[in-house]
Amino acid sequence: MPAAPKVHWIRSNGFLLGLMAAVGLAFLLPGPGSSEGILRPDLVTNIGVALIMFLQGLSLAFEKIKSGAGNWRLHLIIQSFTFFFFPLAGLGMNALLPVVWPGAPPAIRDGFLYLCVLPSTVSTSVVLTAVAGGNTAGALFNAAFSNILGIMVTPVLVGLLMKTTGVMQPFGPMLFKIALLTLLPFAVGMGLRKFVGSWVDARKIWVNRISNAVILFIVYTAFCESVEAKVWDRYGFAVTGLTFALVAALFTFMSLWILATGRVLRLNREDAIAAYFCAVKKTLAMGVPLAMLIFGDRPDISLILLPIMLFHPLQLFVNGILANHWARQAGG
Questions:
Q1: What is the mean pLDDT of residues 301-313?
Q2: Which residues of 47-71 are buried (b: 16+ CB within 10 A; e: fewer)?
């Protein structure tokens, strides 16, 4: 019996522990996951990205989203923060980084811009909104809509923002590849849902496990490539601590901004909670696969991924505390 709480903690934090294990394994055994390794990361990653997007389309209960579709004011606030105000903050950070951190690697600056143009999470945004007593239907609609938009909007914003900073990928081929490996399998998954939706919902835990396993593989190969290219030898591990400090500052700033906006616009309690949890969160599940398609040929891609990998556990920790706090307030 005494071991039960520990087992429960490991299960509830399994993905975060898996992320740490994937990074650790990359430093211990980088060869197999590098670009020339036996795991063929270029091919497996493309298949894995398509599989994740197919499973997301298959799992998206579109019929449950309809009830939250009419609250246009809430939608406008959330999507504006996700795809306008967050990217604006990213540009601000990009301008400030050389001042507050003169030796910041260029890839970290790209990573913050990339973090700021990602869509929201789906599952945790909805779950935390429900726990806190917020507008669950509105959260579900906006989180799902954000992810559908993000498939195409995120690469476009990356192209626009990185053009202003002097870093630009060939845009046409990149957009075609992203559409082929994300939009097409996502649409196929949504199309098949009406035939196998109930079967998939009954096995949702395995759908999540498959998606998480693919993400961990992609993270492993990204760090393998950077270890083989001696990126970490060049910049040192202090970069992680400094990046986390900036991630925490960005998260705090955006949290306060979103909460203040809800007060100024006099949102009711339920809408204010949904607006906060959907607008402040960024998806690692979609962020990692999209990064591989956008930046996959760069040996410093692990540094680009570092901000979102640090943002992910921070948002879960802080928002979990807030959700429980607001739930207790609602209970009197």
A1: 91
A2: ebbbbbbbbbbbbbeeeebeebeeb
Listed by start position, the domains of the chain span: 38-325
Instruction: Give burial (CB, 10 Å; 0-12/13-18/19+) of 311.
Output: buried
Burial class for 300, CB neighbours closer than 10 Å (0-12, 13-18, 19+): buried
Amino acid at 294: I
Contacts of 82 (CB under 8 A, 6+ apart): 119, 120, 146, 278, 279
pTM as predicted: 0.82
Give the C-alpha separation, 300 to 234, whole Å: 11
Q: Which CATH number fits domain 38-325: 1.20.1530.20, 3.10.180.10, 2.40.160.60, 3.50.50.60?
A: 1.20.1530.20
| DSSP 8-state secondary structure symbol assigned to residue 66 | G
Q: Is the per-residue pLDDT at 167 higher than 70?
A: no
Listed in sequence order, the DSSP H helices in 66-203 are: 72-80, 86-100, 106-116, 123-132, 136-164, 171-178, 184-202
Residue type, 39: L
Pair 303, 222: CB distance under 8 Å: no
